[in-house]
Amino acid sequence: MKTNITKQNIKNLLTFLPFFESDAKKYSISPESFMDPYDYADPVNDFIHMVYSEAFILEGFDWPSWQDEAQKYIEDKTLIKEADIETIQKLLTTFIRKERFASGTIARLIDDEVFLYILYRLDAV
Questions:
Q1: Is pTM beyond 0.85 here?
Q2: Are 84 and 42 in contact (CB under 8 A)?
């Protein structure tokens, strides 16, 4: 899979690093909401939109078949430190697309600091 990520794409996404490093509330849960109880803070939604607009989502990528591989990066975040851009794209594609089918996926990844690790990795590229 060909990646077309530029340094500017990375720089733009890194504008969210201070937010993910902060103690700011990133989401809330509304138990009375049957379909989707997770309400993400505006910066989280902006981050998701920027992941799309900065070409980090891989179109045509079979993310469901890659979920087991992605899980390895969640369980051992040190793997993210060595991930190449294509792997970062696969991770972001898998995580963000999965939220549509499994509400709360992004919240768990925020709690586990996975997005923070991804941003640290991009900062080191």
A1: yes
A2: no
